[in-house]
Amino acid sequence: MKDYLKILVVLLTVSVFTACSDDDDALDSEKPTIMLNEPENGEEFEIGGELHFDIELADNQGLASYKVEVHSNSDGHTHSVVKQQEETPWSYDQTFQITGNPLTYDAHEHIDIPEGIAEGEYHLGIIVVDAAGNQEEAFVEIMLGHHGDDHDDHDHDHDH
Amino acid sequence: MKFFWIGLFLSLFGYQSFSQNTDKNTLSGTVESETGDALEGAYVKINGKFFWTSSNGKYTAQLIDGLHEVHVTMIGYESVDTVVKLDQDLQLDFKLSPSVTGLEEVLLEGHEHKKTSQQVLYVDNEFIENQFSGSLASTLERMPGFNAMQIGSGASKPIIRGLGLNRVAVAENGIKQEGQQWGADHGLEIDALQVENLEIVKGVGSIAYGSDAIGGVVRIKNNTTPSEGFSGNVYSFAQSVNNSLGSSVKLSYSQDDWFIKGKFTGISFGDYSLPAEEISYLNFNIPIYDEKLKNTAGKELDWYGQAGIIKDNFSSSLSISKVYQKSGFFPGSHGIPDISRVQPDGDARNIEEPFQRVTHFKVISNSNFIYENGELDLDIAYQRNHRQEWSLFHTHYSGQEPPEVNPNLELDFDLHTYSTRAIYHHNFNRDHETQVGVDLQWKDNDISGFNFLLPEYQAGNYALFAIHEYKASANNLWSFGLRFDYGIIDMEGYYDPNLYEYLIGRNQPEETARAYAQRSEDLNRDFSSLNARMGWDHSFNKNWSTKINVGTAFRLPTAIELGANGIHHGSFRHEQGDPNLDPEQGFMADLNLSFVKDSWNISISPYAYFFSNYIFLKPTGTFSVLPHSGQLFKYTESEAILTGLELAVDKEFGRWHFSLAGEYLYNQQLTSDRSRNFPLPFTPANNLFTEVGYKLFQDSGVFNLSELSINNRLMMEQDRIAQGEEITTGYALWGLGWQNRLNINGFKASVNLRVDNLLNERYFNHTSFYRRLQIPEMGRNIQLNIKIPFGGS
Question: Where is the TonB-dependent receptor plug domain (chain B) (predicted)?
Answer without folding.
Answer: 114-217
